[in-house]
Amino acid sequence: MSVKFIHSADWQLGKPFASIEPTENRVRVQQERFAAIERVGAAARTHAAEFVLVAGDLFDSSSTSKAVVSQACAAIGKLQVPVLFIPGNHDHGGPGCIWEQPFFLQEQAQLAPNLRVLSKPEPVDLGSALLFPCPLLRRHEALDVTAWLRSINFEDLDRPETPRIVLAHGSVQDFGAAGDDDSDDETVNRIDLDRLPDEVFDYIALGDWHGTKQVGSRAWYSGTPENDRFARGEDNLPGNILAVTARRGQPPEVVTLPTARLGWHPVDFTLHSDADLERLDQEVQSLLHNRVGEDLIRLNLDGTLGLEAYARLEEMIERWQARLLRLKLANGVTVAPTDAEIEAMVHRSDDPLISRVAAALHAQAQANNEHSDIARLAMRELYRACMDS
Amino acid sequence: MRLISATVRNYRIHREVAAEFDPQRTLIGGPNECGKSTLAEAIHRALFFPARSTAEPQRRMRSNIHAGQPEVELVFEARGNRYRLTKRFSGQSGTTTLAREGGKTTHGSEAESALAEILGVPDNLGAKATTAQWSHLWIEQGHSGDNPCADANAQRDALVSRLQNTGGAAAMQSDLDARVAALFAQKNEALFTKSGAFKTGTIPQQAEQAVERARSARDAAANRLAELHQAAVDFESAVEAIDQSAKALAELQKEQSTLDERRLRIDQLQRKLAEEERAAGEARQAWDDFSKANQGILDLAAEIRRTEAEIAPDEEKTARLVEAREQSQQAVKEAETALERASAALRYAQIASDFATACRTLLEKTEECSNVSSRVKQGQAWVNELAGLQKKLAELPKVESGELKDLQKISTALTRSRAALEAMATGVEVLSADESVLIGGAPKEAGQSEVLTDVTEIEVGGVARLLIRPGGGTTLEDAKATAADLERRLDKRLRDLGVKSLDEAAEVKARRDEVTRQIAALEQRLEDLGLSEQKKRLDQLSTACVEIQAQIDRLRRDNPSLPAIPGDLKDAVALVRATSEQLNTAKTEEDQARKGRDAAARKLDKTITEYNAQAGRLDKARSKLNESRTRLKILVETHGGDEARKNRLAELERIRNETAAVVERSRQSLEELQPGRLEGSLARVKRALEEKAGAQRAAEDKRLTAQTVLRRDGTQDPEADLAQAEADLRSAEDRLASARQHAEAIRLLHDLFKEEQRILAEHFTQPLADKITGYLQCVFGARAQSHVVLDNGEFQGIELTRPDLEVGSISFADLSGGTREQLAAATRLAMAEVLAESHDGCLPIVFDDSFAYSDPQRVKTLQDMLDLAARRGLQVIILSCNPADYAGLGAREVILSLAPSHGRRQNGIATPHPPREPDQRPRDKSPTEVHSDIEDFDALEAIFLNTLNSTGGTLGNQSLRLALGLNQQTYDRIKNRLLASGQIVRGKGKGGSVSLIFAQQHNKKSY
Hints:
The complex is a heterodimer. By secondary structure, chain A is an alpha/beta fold.
């Protein structure tokens, strides 16, 4: 007896993306998460999945707003299969949790009758599969939420042929969301897979790690279907869902299906010359492929540029900003006038005042003290004023 | 540019006045109101004011005392040429003519334009602007102390241009410099307030506000989320607390019911125990009571036995004492009898003794009585004899020896006196008498004689009266008187003594002496005898004898046994001796008996006392014993006999022990239930129950409250809101940091530009400062320095440094009025000097009473400064009402005065010297006299009123006339006209005065 289903997690609907400006870009990124639900639904249909499992963090917040709830329920309601999920650390099932709020219950009933919250650690019989949910009932759970699985008397269940699927949210061993999530403590929400009985469960659907990753013969992190951050590390592969075929007593068949639309690109670059500027421009271009409004770049810059070159960099940045949903810029480039620029400013026989001021600024910039940054900035202003005049 | 001459017509006060100017130094003097300033103004207007202007300055030029339009004619040199400029200021019909000597003459606006170009000022300026032209060169009265920076800034472009040419070494900012500096100044100005804060509405200020807003929003969002988290925590803890409370309550309730049961058992036991204790108490009491009674009986019986044993010896002793007492009483009785016998014997012996003694005394007294009686008889006889003698003496005249002597003396004297009288007496004898003769009044018959011893009148018949004086007068009389006196005295003495003569007196005297001697002898014998004592003694003895006799009689009557009275004293003495012996014996015997009786009595007393004591003790003991016996009897009757009591006591003891054992068992049962701790436990459990119930209610409230908070309406997502608020804050902070950096960069640039400009400006203004210093040193000494502050291309200030005063540099505003004038003058001279380089090296500079605040000494040193200016090429023109102050300047003087009217019009100008060419100017410096011509009375009236007004509205006639320079006739005529028109009134004072009626209607200044 086998069952086909979609394993997903970390939808984090309603994530604010607060640092993205302007608002329309932010809204665009927020909305893409809802759009991803449709792609999950399409994949479910394509792969004849009986249901969709979401291993935690359906919502980004345990205090999600009604608007997000409504939109999520509407999107989920459109999927033609049951969607079952457990509360994760972001939308945990503790007191005052979203799952108990009247407006959620109302929207769920009206818009997403196929949506089912598994907020209790007890077996759920779907007919074709037995689910063993391990919900998080608080944001930071110090105990292993899978502990209850160790004491199940399967004979009582009397379903020897039905595939057994575990749903859990947290980090396993020394790997997991602690390195991926923004703020969580490594010591909480730990899942000890090694302590689960051998081959008792046929698939362990994990959530919390945003990249797709197999962490055991039957244990997988599906990752988030639509990326929500600049990935950390080489093996972090977000933007997928898993189409799983599980059989009792056998390893699962797992197919990775890409579902992401937005590009999140980390770029680190060191600048020393106009040529470097050119190369940087090309790299950015190659990432964007002339797309507009679908990418986000984290640009870490360092190095040193002259006044003119820096002005060109500023122009380039302005151009990129227009095309990107977000340019997260860490500009560590030092502005140092070139010798020629210094010469042009300091030795102006016709403009004695400007030369003297420029010389003073140059000296301050060279001094490398707390005033040097201001002096460099002032030099740029002075340079621009001279050029403009 | 240099002024040569000026002629002014119909210009306010001036009908026509002309002045010539020295190329270097001109001093225009004259009293107040003579038109010096008007002249200076007229020259200024000619140079700058358009002739056809109808603006205010033009209206003010017009004279209200002279007919005709204001007109000014100037001759000046400029740009290498000499010009004659004529302007007629008649409004729209005004004319301008500018004639270049040896060259073109232009008119109207062309002439105005040409003039402006020559003077280097803009053409077609407005009327007001023209009056401000060259204000640095035309220093108006009252404005000499104004800050010259204003003038310097007005001439800034020209000054800067000249200084740049002069400076050489100092590089001035380029246009680009200026533009860029201005750009940053403007940006800085736009960004920062004066205190260095960001201005409202600037990007950094808005960024600051945005950060504040974002921070508030973040804090609010964080608080909301924290509330939510707290609510979740509260909810969980409340649920846990409720569970715990419920468990605890159940436990407590169980404990409480256990305690209640125990309490019930304890109550029952306590009641039972109380009953048992009561019974045990009663049994114990009964046993105690009976036991005590029994003991009492035993004790009492013992006591009775003991008392009985104690009493036995006392009974014996008492019996013995009774016997002894009776014996003693018998002894006493016998002793009393013996004593009575002895006493009777003693009494009789005493009587016998007394009797014997009385007898003897009687016999002795009787004998003495007889002796004394005989002495009394003798004495009595002597007394009688004495009485006879004393009678005899008393019968004799009492002639004593003294009296006898006196008698003898008087008698002798009488004898002698009679003899003398006899010798002197006159005998008269009537021999015959026809008539009656009266001698001494006594009729004398003839013949009668008379011895006359006194002065005696003899009258004879009434015919003759004779006065006879025996002895020739008084002698006879005296002798007669003496004799008579003596005679009288003798008679009287004799009479008194009771004797008839002196002889008898002597005889009496002898007899008296004999009797007296006898009396004395008798009296001596009586005295020796002591008759009165003897009489008294006799009385006593008689009385004593009677008494003794009475005593004897009584004794004998009472004691017949007494012996017979002795016959004589000798017997009596013997009897006395015998009775005395008997008495002594009786006394001894009586004494013995008394002593015996006393000893027996004492013994009896002792025996009685002893007996009484013993008997008392015995009675007491017996009484007590009886009492005890009675009590014992009653007790035995009450409690039974010995056996009965013993049985009863044993029974009671058994009951007592049994009940005590029952109590002990119940008490142990109760103690096992710990009743002492029960109340504490109950209170504790009750308290704990209340506590837990309260805690449960509180937890339920808390849960409900948390639940309310946790139940959201979903309009917002606090977590998302916080994330957004934090991102907004970061973003706002980034923007603020960037804006601040940018602003700081702008400020740095601006500061640097300003500093560099200042450094440049200092280089740049140095030549001007040097020139000012040059002038100042003329006044303030060689160490004085000036400093010109040029900031942003504007002259900001002039400072004076005087190291001699050690006050550092002082800004213009802080200087005294006088020093301000001098520093301003120095600055203007320096500016003129700099600017003159564009005007052929010369410019006129007019000081109109410019050193009003300077003291005369300073004015003198000022002349060095003015002279230096002249030497440096300036044309210095000084206007002063005290031209003498400027005597040291060596200037050409032009004196203006009010011309006296001689009733004749003086048209035209009075100039002693015709205009000359500059090179022909006279060497002599005699002042040029210029008189204003007063045209008519109307004008004089105006001047009259102006002058009066300028002196405060009231002035003495003489002073006013002299001030106006009018003769008396003219003055009076004008004054009368004004009085008639009511514009002035007469005032008081010597010589009279006049006052304006409406002083306020007249301006102080004439223009």
